[in-house]
Amino acid sequence: MTRIRRMRRSVAEEAERSPFSHDDQLNPSGFHEVVEDAIARAQERLLDLQQDDGHWCAELEGDSILESEYILAMMYLGRSGESRVAKAAEYLRRQQRPEGGWGIYPGGPADVSASVKAYFVLKELGDDPDSEAMSRARAAILEAGGVESCNSFTKLYLSIFGQYEWNRAPAVPPELVLLPRWFPFNLYEISSWSRAIVVPLSIIWAMKPSRKVSVEIDELKVDEATGKRPAVGSLSTRLWGATFLLIDRFIKFCQLVPFHPFRRFAIRRAEAWILERLPASDGLGAIFPPIVNTIIAFESLGYGQDDPVLGGQIRELERLEIEEEETLRVQPCKSPIWDTALALASLAGSGLPGLPAEHEALARAGDWLLEKEVKRPGDWRMKNPDGQIGGWYFEYANEFYPDCDDTAEVLMGLSKLQGNAELPEALRAAMARGLAWLESMQNRDGGWASFDRGCDRQFLTAIPFADHNAMIDPSTTDLTSRAIQALVGMGIGPGVPAIRRAVEFIYSQQEPDGSWYGRWGCNYLYGTWLALVGLAAAGEDMSGERARRAVGWIRSVQNRDGGWGELPASYEDPALKGIGPSTASQTAWALMGLLATGDTGSAELARGVDFLLSAQLPDGGWRDSAWTGTGFPKVFYLNYHGYALYFPLLALADFRNRSRSAVGEDCQSARERVA
Q1: Cα(212)–Cα(228) distance, rounded to whole angstroms?
Q2: What is the pLDDT of residues 185-197, one digit of tens each?
Q3: Is residue 405 among the annotated active site residues?
Q4: Phi, psi of 473 (to 5 degrees)
Q5: Region of residue 390 (phi > 0: left; psi between -120 and 50: alpha; otherwise: beta)
Q6: Concatenated DSSP letters for 24-35?
Q7: CB 534, CB 484: distance < 8 Å
């Protein structure tokens, strides 16, 4: 708690609260001319970034775990001497925190798992363990609890290289793939990303591949009894944790017996499961961890690096590299559909000249998105057997895994074009299929999750290898709000039962102070913005008590510079919600939340708009000073490089449109009074 208190104090000092009263009013009409200019420059910048075939794809940045595990994979493949590995190591060195370790977001505390992996690969690549940098790293790791405090996946990776005992790492038996659907714990009761990570990892655990290295990291080990443990959860969580721990020990005991009747069959079933999902995909799940796990798993099964399957996964890993003159960093995946949908919505919503569907750039974006429509069933079908095939995924190719967030955002972007009768029939049909798929994915609680329906068995988070905080995929406020907006944008009335159930779900998630938790963006600013725009789209009374509480919370966390910011630390300690240096994207979220409630003239709104105008760069874009994206809360965060352009453009356009409307309404009222 001492670290959290220090963080709260230091961030609060950097991001002082607004001195303006909530009752202060400031006429924003004086902003209009400069706002128009800012919108035009942002539009021009965004159009310049569009690729020739019509799509956008900004860099997606993750933490140093990616470079460490990339180097581990290259070490496993016997390619640690390549120049690209040396460049990745140099990038790692530059990411080390002054205190000694490596964090999972800029400005955050050292993370023990990230730090142990970085220390190990740098030592193996020749960094002197007695050097000042490595000594600082070692001290930070020991202070954090040493190797024993690492997460399960780190321990399993270390076991491959002889730095940890296999029988002490959590068991991930391949027999998991054989468990029937009716069994409380089966493959399709865990989240899609965990599924893609765990299946190849189970092969690794069963095969126990090994690679000799020239170093050891015994200096990072502490007594198991002194290793730091996660915070104690609820009684239910502790009971399930104890149960799964006994199961884990039983599985390991069974490994002492040489006869495993289902092991060979389970491994082959896991292998087949992976192979089925590789076509039409940028690697398994199209994300970094499953790709690395598949490379190690298939090599352990005897696939050669020249084999089309294993070689294909290696190439997918290489496609995630961003190589520069001295460094190499690795993206967790690529985000072209997400970026294109957001860019399309930003440009169409901000008023490009002419009819939206006739604008050449937007038409090309629509054509590109049409080509990416999902046309085959995927894992989602296991819990939604009657759902319409359709929707969109996140990456360039990932047909097994469409998701509700991308599908909703694509529909919102495309719906801004469909007022034109010339919109191609093929695109209209794809939108109808996507809408039907999205509707079919609504959970029983009224909300929407990411990739699956009904993936919310909380007890599964107590499984020993589930410490990546992403074992399940329950309904979230942010996804539910986007689904509401998509349904309404496609012409579904806000009074239909699906939307009313969604509204009730969102209300059920509101915090006492008026805010909402944000699952896929950092954090309460993201969740509160989306909750408010979703409720507004559903026709809720935005002058009511719930909305007023949300507005009060947003206003209360405005920074002195007029912007808003929130660091990932709020996932660890909700007392830090809304605290952080102002960023363009989070300021835009706050502004759009205020605008959704009908605020068009408050001092807070005007000062927020002024912050965006002042922060705009000469090229028409913005740059965030902190990361605002979330992968797995408390475990993995993201920096979407496009967010600092899409969302400020949307917010400024929303401000312009609503304030114009408010001025028009005032003039009409005045005319009526005169008459």
Answers
A1: 29
A2: 889 999 999 999 9
A3: yes
A4: -135, 75
A5: left
A6: -B--GGGGHHHH
A7: yes
Q: What would the two tokens of residue 136 be?
A: 């600082």
Tokens of 227: 């290793």
For residues 385 and 190, what is the distance between their CA atoms, to the nearest angstrom? 17
| Rounded Cα gap, residues 269 and 355, in angstroms | 53
CB count, 10 Å around CB of 109?
19
Q: What amino acid occupies position 569?
A: A
Per domain, the residue ranges of the chain are 63-330
The DSSP annotation for 472-538 comes to -B--BHHHHHHHHHHHHHTT--TTSHHHHHHHHHHHHT--TTS----SSBSSHHHHHHHHHHHHHHT
Instruction: Compute φ and ψ for 331, nearest 5 degrees.
Output: -85, 145
pLDDT beyond 80 at 358: no
| CATH hierarchy code of domain 63-330 | 1.50.10.20
Q: What angle do CA 632, 634, 637 make, to 5 degrees?
A: 55
User: Which residue in this structure is represented by tokens 């190589």?
Assistant: 323
CA distance 107 to 115: 15
- Summarize pLDDT for 51-97 with one digit per residue, the tens: 999 999 999 999 999 999 999 999 999 999 999 999 999 999 999 99
Distance CA 667, CA 206 (A): 74
User: For residue 335, how many C-alpha atoms fall within 13 Å in the half-sphere facing its CB?
Assistant: 23
63: tokens are 């933490």
Q: How confident is the model at residue 672 (pLDDT cuts 50, 70, 90)?
A: very low
348: which residues sit within 8 A by CB, 6+ positions away? 356, 362, 413, 416, 417
Other Cβ atoms within 10 Å of 313 Cβ, number: 29
Catalytic member of 339, 405, 406, 445: 405
- Count CB-CB contacts under 10 A for residue 549: 16
The more confident residue out of 668 and 524 is 524
Distance CA 13, CA 11 (A): 5
Looking at residues 365-372, what average pLDDT do you find?
Answer: 96
Q: How close are the terminal C-alpha atoms of the chain, in Å?
A: 65
Token pair for residue 78?
């016997």
DSSP track, 311-354: HHHHHHHHTTEEE-SS-EEE-S---HHHHHHHHHHHHHHTT-SS
Instruction: Output the CA–CA distances (angstroms, integers) from residue 509 to 85, 143, 344, 629, in the order listed.
Output: 45, 37, 30, 20
Residue with the two structure tokens 């919310």: 456
Measured CA to CA, the distance from residue 457 to residue 511 in angstroms comes to: 22
Quick count: other Cβ atoms within 10 Å of Cβ 532? 28
